[in-house]
Amino acid sequence: MRTTGWLSLLVLLGFLAASLDASAGDADPLYRACVAQCEETGSIGDISMRHCQFSDSDVPINSSWYMQEPIYLQWKQLNCRSDCRYHCMMQRENEREKLGLKPVKYHGKWPFKRVSVFQEPASAIFSAVNLLAHFIGWLSFFLLVSYKLPLRPQSKRTYYEFTGLWHIYGLLSMNAWFWSAIFHTRDFDLTEKLDYSSAVALLGYSFILSLLRTFNVKDEASRVMFSAPILAFVTTHILYLNFYELDYGWNMMVCVTMGVGQLLVWAIWAGVTHHPSRFKLWTVVFGMALSMLLEVYDFPPHYGYFDAHSLWHLATIPLTWLWWSFIKSDAEFRTQVLMRKVK
After folding, report:
1. Do the beta carbons of residue 264 and residue 281 sit within 8 Å?
2. How far apart are CA 80 and CA 88, in angstroms?
3. Of 39, 98, 135, 242, which sits with the fewest C-beta atoms within 10 Å of its C-beta?
């Protein structure tokens, strides 16, 4: 428990330190001047920004109908700002490299090299693979409990009492990784809020699920009593992030607390109950704890693509496969126990 407590403290300190350096690049006067000139002229040196070629007031009258729609014009402005920031960032980083200076963050992110539309290609690809891993894991769990394991004779429902809860978990996981992939592809205010909100919703629900499973809460009334306070807090937190202030520091504290809390609950429960698949669970807990260190020891992207955050996304892929393996083993174990009681 002490080790996990120190780990959570290190995570918090790491993100607080990162936040202090988050605006070093975009606070640079040369970078700001470059972005302002680019948005005004639509070019940086020999590079022309196709999204900055016209403003709201000079749309050609005979242009296509969608080019005159406000939402299209807003999209153009967002892409213009994004393109200008990217090219000015790369220009400044080239200048800094020639002077022997280390890379700095711009708007809270390291200077990544784009690939087509992907702003952070490694993180986007690894997020998509995580999405696929969760889909395969959830699908194999669905086939197991619905077609391979025996059903209750009268109701034709599964013996496993937590089937529905794990189905919801699978859907929330796929939703979170979907928006993670979108956010790392194109970073806008909307995609950022959807990514953060989905991640908080998943962490909150998985924390609830860890308590329901480890305390073996079966009846609906007790589940509501367990879930209501956490669900209310998570909902309030999501509303706060979206409609009041996107506070990165506070959000990180909330996420770390829920994440470390459920890891502790699972690890202790596996040891106390001597679950037959406890070694799978302990491996996941230990792996997730180690992967958090990647978020603490943040570093610039190697070759312009692979930073600590993208490697964290990579590390969660095999852990996802092992996690769903534990869930399926738990379903088989509980089904066997309940069938013996029935006989």
Report:
1. no
2. 12
3. 98
Every domain of the chain with CATH number 1.20.1070 lies at: 121-342
Domain covering 121-342, topology? Rhopdopsin 7-helix transmembrane proteins (1.20.1070)
- Contacts made by residues 239-244, CB under 8 angstroms, sequence distance 24+: 241/193, 241/196, 241/197, 241/200, 242/193, 242/197
Q: Which of 39-43, 96-100, 278-282 is predicted with the least confidence, judged by mean pLDDT? A: 39-43
CA angle 23, 24, 30 (to 5 degrees): 110
Name the pTM for this structure.
Answer: 0.84
Return d(Cα 305, Cα 309) in angstroms, integer. 11
Distance CA 136, CA 222 (A): 31
CA proximity to 30, closest of 44, 20, 15:
44
Q: Which two tokens stand for residue 69?
A: 């729609």
Closest by alpha carbon to 127, among 22, 190, 199? 199
